[in-house]
Design goal:
The complex is a heterodimer of chains A (378) and B (225).
Chain A: E1 2-6, H1 12-27, E2 32-36, H2 41-54, H3 63-79, E3 86-90, E4 107-111, H4 121-131, E5 136-139, E6 151-154, H5 171-180, E7 189-193, H6 202-213, E8 219-224, H7 233-244, E9 250-254, H8 260-269, E10 272-275, H9 284-291, E11 296-299, H10 304-307, E12 315-317, H11 320-332, H12 334-351, H13 354-367, E13 374-376
Parallel strand pairs in A: 1-2, 1-3, 3-4, 4-5, 5-6, 7-8, 7-10, 8-9, 10-11, 11-12
Chain B: E1 8-24, H1 27-34, H2 39-52, H3 63-70, H4 75-82, H5 92-110, E2 122-138, H6 141-150, H7 153-165, H8 173-180, H9 185-193, H10 201-223
Antiparallel strand pairs in B: 1-2
Classes of the chains: A alpha/beta (378), B alpha+beta (225).
């Protein structure tokens, strides 16, 4: 049995992947389960701090933080049934489950979805002792590999092309969603879809948009939701609304959980999709946009660079000015934009659909039982 | 139609990427690490682009060339590395040695002043291959080409690249079977001479199909009354 453990059933990329992945593994004959740890506000404040710290933000993990994390972890160890022959533990929140008295005799995989290429030392040092107890760690980009005494693998996340977020939509559905959010189609639409999080840099997107608007008529749509395990998103949303105030071409859209069809429609309505993250584990919103054949302008950070090959499957940028320049370049050259979009779709078709992801997991389960570089199955 | 002494069994190959945690910021570091890593790392970085971007126009197959040109901006060395054709080397060790020699020759001539910006270092990755038999068998060229049309690109890459470079076989699996089991020396030689590193994998598949179909047409002419 393969048991996945994370911190939430909804919101964010991990929950989204598991929602699709677990039933598919079951259909392939793998007994796959999904369990969620529990935590209070104090615990998720610490894990958010850890999340930001692992992404590189300077953080201090106080004794109180450590206590809150350890107490909740102890409670989860007591209450969560460890059942899997293979335990796949996602991200730092449940990392301490490896201390369970039932850990022995199972294979433990720590699946890190975070960009840990340059983590803050206190955050990494805090979780490292647990990570080192695992049998393997899995990251989303080569740059995330850490000096660890365990095997490390690269598995990119994926999207499900048949999900509500990615399936084909009739034009009437797209139009209806635009009407619902009061977004006119009179100008090209620049769209960033992301959880409201400083690391997605929505404020930087607004600044880039203002530079673009000096010479090109367009609208900006910043749409996203909040995640159950992210206590900071309300603050970010407030700041974004403040910065967008007074500009009728900027549409800030807060979408509730389960707005997958709306996300799909907004991405399909976009002229250009932007993902100006400061840090990014992988960036599934980029994958979604590429799959829809959209030209993408995205930061050269984390797993985005695996998806956007500069000038081949999209445009990479490194700051506000670069983002503005790339958007202008695409607005002025629709044929080039379309060519990039088509390449991007093919890139996703071959490398970032859930079928590839399932295959990688099965290969990982096999590889952990074989130390050799070429494994023969009869 | 000639029947083979032994049927050709097609194998499927999938690969998993294992991270080594090793990285380089300069070409000197690149050469230094390259000397120490397992062959599976050399294989990964000289075949990744071909396998992951096989739908695009051909690009240099070597990650080393791409990184040196695009990240370090050293287009002269990038060209030299791109021009190292994996097809010419019998083993990954020989390919590694040539790559290191080219980098070190370049260093002697021009120094090592360029450093990758933070976050854009070269990260060494190892390819772990899992090889398994498919139900596909071919007993003659017609059956072979029929399977070839529906074969996965991973399988094609396994029989064409990996068999020779990673498993130490003297030639690709297809040529070996054409010659050894079918007695098709000329076709075997044509396929063995064919350099797949300047094509997409689909391009390689098309060319193989063309060569075999031509041979089948010749065969039917020579056997007709």
């Amino acid at each position: 049995m393969v048991q996945n453990v994370n911190s939430t059933f909804s919101g964010g990329g991990v929950a989204e992947i598991l929602t699709r992945m677990v039933p598919l593994l079951c259909q392939l004959g793998v007994d796959a389960r999904w369990s969620v740890i529990k935590g209070d506000g104090a615990f998720f404040e610490v894990t958010k701090k850890l999340h930001n710290g692992l992404h590189g933000q300077e953080v201090v993990i106080s004794d109180e933080d450590a206590r809150a994390f350890q107490e909740t972890s102890r409670s989860n160890i007591e209450n969560l049934r460890v059942l899997g022959d293979i335990m796949v533990v996602h991200d730092p929140q449940p990392v301490a489950l490896i201390d369970s008295t039932e850990a022995a005799g199972r294979t433990w995989i720590w699946r890190c979805h975070i960009d840990v290429s340059r983590p803050s030392v206190p955050a990494w040092e805090f979780i490292r002792p647990w990570v080192e107890k695992y049998d393997a760690a899995v990251f989303s980009a080569p740059a995330f590999a850490r000096p660890l005494p365990v095997r490390q693998f690269l598995i990119s996340p994926s999207i499900d092309p048949l999900s509500d977020k990615n399936r084909e939509l009739p034009p009437e559905t797209v139009d209806a969603v635009l009407v619902k959010y009061d977004i006119p189609r009179d100008k090209p639409l620049i769209v960033q879809i992301s959880r409201f999080d400083y690391l997605k840099d929505p404020l930087g997107v607004i600044e880039a948009f203002k530079l673009v608007k000096r010479s090109a008529a367009c609208r900006l749509v910043l749409a996203g939701g909040t995640a159950a395990d992210d206590p900071w998103s309300d603050r970010v949303l407030r700041d974004v609304r403040l910065k967008a105030e007074g500009d009728p071409d900027i549409h800030v859209v807060l979408m509730p959980q389960g707005s997958d069809l709306d996300v799909n429609a907004l991405q399909r309505a976009a002229t250009i999709v932007v993902q100006k993250s400061l840090k990014e584990g992988f960036g599934l919103t980029v994958t979604e946009a590429l799959w829809k054949g959209k030209p993408v302008v995205a930061s050269a950070v984390g797993g985005i660079t695996l998806q956007v090959k500069d000038k081949l499957t999209g445009l990479l940028c490194h700051g506000i000015e670069g983002t503005a320049y790339s958007i202008r370049q695409l607005l002025g050259n629709p044929e080039y934009a379309s060519w990039l979009g088509q390449n991007g779709r093919e890139h996703v078709r071959h490398n970032f659909l859930i079928t590839r992801h399932l295959r990688d997991y099965l290969l990982l389960f096999l590889a952990l039982g074989h130390p050799e570089d070429v494994v023969y199955l009869s | 139609m000639k029947k083979a002494r032994e049927a050709f069994r097609f194998f499927e190959r999938e690969h998993l990427k294992e991270l080594t945690g090793l990285r380089a910021s300069t070409v000197r570091e690149l050469a230094g690490v390259l000397k120490t890593v397992p062959d599976s790392v050399v294989y990964y970085h000289t075949h990744r682009f071909l396998e992951e971007h096989h739908f695009l126009t051909p690009e240099p197959a070597s990650d080393f060339a791409i990184w040196v040109s695009d990240t370090l901006g050293d287009e002269v060395l990038g060209e030299k590395l791109a021009n190292i054709d994996a097809f010419e080397f019998p083993t990954l060790e020989a390919l590694r040695e040539r790559t290191v020699n080219v980098i070190e020759g370049h260093l002697v001539a021009g120094g090592d002043s360029r450093r990758a910006p933070d976050g854009r270092e070269f990260h060494f990755v190892k390819s772990v291959s899992v090889v398994m038999p498919t139900p596909y068998l071919a007993r003659d060229l017609r059956e072979f080409v029929d399977v070839l049309r529906k074969l996965s690109l991973g399988s094609l890459a396994f029989h064409f690249f990996e068999a020779r470079l990673r498993l130490g076989r003297p030639t690709n699996d297809f040529s070996a079977w054409f010659e050894g089991s079918l007695g098709e020396q000329e076709l075997a030689a044509q396929v063995a001479r064919f350099d797949p590193y300047y094509r997409t994998l689909e391009g390689t598949r098309s060319l193989l199909i063309q060569l075999i179909e031509r041979r089948l047409r010749q065969g039917s002419r020579t056997t007709s009354p």
